Amino acid sequence: MECLACHAVNADRVRSCTVCSASLIPARTQWELDRAEVEIKKGRFELAALHLAKADGGLLQLPASDNYRQFLSARAFWLQGLIYYYHAQTDAAAAEMAQAADLLEGYTGGEGLRAQALINLGNINYYKGHMEVAASYYDQATEMAVLAGAHTAAARAMNNRANIHSAHGQSVDALNLYHAALHQAELSGDATALAGCYRLLSATYQQIGPYSQALEFVNKALSLRGQIDDQAVVCQIINQAASLYLTYGDLEQAEQYLREAYDQARREGNKLLQWEIVNNLIELSRQKGDTERWFNYASRTFNNPSTTLGKTSAALQLVRYYLSQSEAEQARIYVRWLKNNALAADRQLEDELMYNQAAALLHTAEESWGVADSFFQRAIEVAAEQDNPIREAEVCEEYAAMLRQQASSENSHTAASHAEATLRRAADLYRQLGIPSRLQAVEIALRQPQPESRSELAVDKLKQAQL
Ligand SMILES: [Zn+2]
Asked: Mean pLDDT throughout 249-259?
């Protein structure tokens, strides 16, 4: 055991340093905490808890006057907080993290760890949908970490802050901050931090295009897999790759990545990550036409008591599911939930977008064309405001499908030409995003003639009858 005071290496069972006679308890406690951290990163939480218990024993033996004890205690609180955090026990995690942050306030040399605890507190608030609180934790953490030269923590805080910009449709701010975080990660030389930055840049370019950039960044992240010590980060990267292939329409590749990510998250008991992956599994099942899984994943996510992560998009999926089963009354329940959610105080543009989209789909199924039309128009406006061209293009496609149904049922040339214009808008967006597979699908739809309408046939028959 290396003495923390004079760095002399002592034999294993010695209680105090044979050179300077300092107690070896701090060194032993620190060693246990290091082991606990390694095990947490490997997802072996039971082993981590064992090391934490031993560290606690050491801490109790240290005199309260020992200055370093404060730092070690803070680290023990932080690690315990991480274990709760990964088990989605967010309130317990927040209490431990807050304790760690308090102990480190003003502690020289503890800035990096304090920044990390603040980031975790930010994340807990983020997952609960308290965006403003989360943003202020991230800002505090960024300032502290940059000043202390704690590059890894700085990169993490900046990335998470950028996520909030992104959720508010501030793509330019988000992108600038993601690139600033990448710079911090490069300074740190830490493969895990670097791969995390690549993943987020991939997700951002996936949303705003070009798709080729998104693919390039996720491939860079995947190429670092062997050097990443945190399995949760590896899982998130695989999940991002899956999400990208899902957007692209390569279901086989997406499914392969999703199975891999889900198995890994489950093996490690990382519940939060499992829910992030399930969000993509819902969409995969829908696109594959696997209705049973589609419904199961969506209703489990919607009813999940431990996190609201993905709840809104699960509600939209349930609306789609029930409409596909011609159960409009069931769908209406979730449209109503989405409406209340969009009216909530800390609502986001995404919530508003999903409500308008869900309401538009419900009214389309009921053939209330005018009402559906206004919900679709509002949904497109919100997507544009959110600077989210991929979602905008998706809504345009659904809007065009509704307009074509309307054109057919009312024999309306106005609706038919409006449908064509809307499809062209979707095509432009996919071209701008650089997604050839989606562009091609829209171009095929554009070439398909307007289905012959029933009323047109009826008019013809009427004319014949008059003759
Ligand atoms: Zn010594």
From this structure: 94
